[in-house]
Structures are given as C-alpha cells and as structure tokens.
Amino acid sequence: MNPATIEGPGVRLRLFRPTDVADITAGCADPLTQRFMDGLPHPYTEADARWWVAEGAPATFAGGGAAYAIADPDTDRLLGTVGLSNLVAPRSQAEIGYWVAPWARGRGVATAATRALAGHAFATGTARLELLTSVDNAASQRVALAAGFRPEGVRRAASPVRGGGRRDLTVWVRLADDPPGATPRLLPDLPEGRLTDGVVVLRALGPADADEMFRLHSDAEVVASRVPPEPPTREAMARYCQEAQGQWLVGKLAPMAILDATSGAVAGNCAVILDQPANQAMIGYSLSPQWRGRGYATRTVRLLAGWGFAHVGLARLWAGTLPENVASQRVLERAGFRYEGLLRGRLPGAVGTRADSTVFGLLPGDLTD
C-alpha cells in the first residue's frame, strides 16, 4: 500500500490536489520537459492537468504503481512529479521517472525525490528499479548517478519521438542491496570545468560545438588521420556532440574541445577513452591546420595525461598513430610517451584496406613538463 506522503531531504512526496493544476500545466508545458517527455500531450493544457489529478494519478496507484507530486515541505508548492510505472511483478521490478518544474531546477529536487521514492519501493518489496534517460539528457543522467543508479547500457530506438522517429535510451539500474549514496564516477568532471596551462584550454564538448567539429573533421588534412580516413556526415557529428556529455557520465569517454586561451577560438578536439577493467585509457586529438606548429597538441596531451593520472586515477595511458604520422609521434614523445611497437593491420583504412598503427605508452612517472 502506498502512503499518502513520503518525506525526503528538502522534499515531500504527496498526492496530487486540484490546487496543483496551474503548476502541473506550467511544468508540463515547459519546453525542456516537453523535449524529453514525448508521451506528454502537446500542447499541454489545464484540461490535461485536471485529468491527471482526477484520473491519471489515481489510476497509476490502482495499477500497482505510484504517482506523487514533489512538494516543497515549507510552502507545499508543487516542484515536480515522481512515480513508478511499468511494473514487472514476477521480477519485483519497476521503472522510476520524474520531471522538475523550471522554478525548482538546480536545487537537487529530482535527486532527493528519486532517493525517497526508491527507498520506499525497496522497503516494500521491489528488488530492482530502472531509470531510463535520453542519451543526450545529461541533467537526468546526473540525477541517476546522484541517486545511486548505475548505467547498464543503451536501448536502441526504445522510445518514440513526438513528431516522428525514435530515440535511444540509456538504462540506469539500482538494486535493493546496492550500497547507499551516489554512484562513483569513473570519469569525473574537469576541475572548475576546464583544464588549462594558460595557453590552451580544454573543456567538455557539447551540442553547441557541432558546427566547429564538423568543419574540423571535414578538413582534408584531418581526414587523412581519421579512422577510417573518411569525413563524417553533419548528422553524425551533431549526434556525437549531443551525446558527448552522456558518454562522459556513463564512464566511456571524455570528449573535449581544445581552445586558444587568449581568443577562446576552437583549435581542435581531444578525448580520453576509458578501458576501465585495465585502469588505462587511450587518448586522441586533432588540431585544425591553422593552429598547428604552436605546440598546442603537446600542451593538450600533457593536460590530458595530468588529469588522467591525478583525477581519474589511471595507471597507464596509450595512443596510436599511423606509421607515417611523424608529427603526431613527436607530440607524444615530447609529452613523455614511449614507443612500444607496431600493430599490423590494426586500423580500417581506405576502400576496405587495413592500416598499421604505432603504439605509444605513458606511465605516471614518464610525464614531462
């Protein structure tokens, strides 16, 4: 049986009331809510909110789920909603979901509400909770981590998109016997949001970088070092930038933009690609031709290595280059990487061919200033 209220730090989960209609309407009509919740009516009206309060939420409880208003414990104003759905009784499993109103974002409301409802679900017999997020919804993914959920993979084309098409969803799971607290991050955020040596700046890649990244990776000199040596499509690069933060949060890779510290211009991009079982990572980098010859690539590699060893806790970094890419090999050597060998036919080449790859490795004591 679901209680009328569930208390959490800074939030109260309670049943919906007719006085919530205006706030439900405003919250569900918000563009960000609409963007990631394709199942909501569009446009969302007060009639939709009244139906939810009178029929939708009670029907969710009647079906064995839960539908709570997230309320401010001091003012009782609605801050969002949280609920349980898609119950699989034989597996003691349910799905948890939420949205937060624009006036309550940035206060930890979703995390507190998710923790509170998850705790109640586990206490009343649920063994496994799933939380599904769009692969480009970094804010919701941060909530999942903070609430103790762990990434389990991506369900391809799992959800229809309003207006046509389908979207991938990242699956986050918490079990009843998982340790309390947030899920540790394999790839932490950059300290103060960036890495810099005063000459170059590295910051997380995001959706706004799509045009710059498409221009960079369409340049003929950059394409020659890509694997395979083909330019990306505009759609593929936009998707890469949209999903970059999500890839970082699930602990797969940390994609970054390389900026000139003086002008703020984008000079290139780089990434740390994690091999977590081996506690090592591969690094990669690309610079626009007009920014080459200034030592920016070497500075980038040193910044990546320093962050990887000091903040990620890696035991080893490695990088590969085409055998003919002597300039990139010199970059690695100046940063302290040592040549370790040649892997024959390791990389896909042009028109169905294979290309060899050199391998350079770096241990914490090898890094040069």
TrEMBL record:
InterPro entries: Acyl_CoA_acyltransferase, GNAT_dom, Ribosomal_N-acetyltransferase. GO terms for cellular component: cytoplasm. The keyword Transferase applies. Pfam families: Acetyltransf_3. The keyword Ribonucleoprotein does not apply. Gene3D superfamilies: 3.40.630.30. Keywords: Transferase. GO terms for molecular function: protein N-terminal-serine acetyltransferase activity; protein-N-terminal-alanine acetyltransferase activity. SUPFAM superfamilies: Acyl-CoA N-acyltransferases (Nat). PANTHER family: ACETYLTRANSFERASE, RIBOSOMAL-PROTEIN-SERINE ACETYLTRANSFERASE. This is GNAT family N-acetyltransferase. It comes from Micromonospora endophytica.
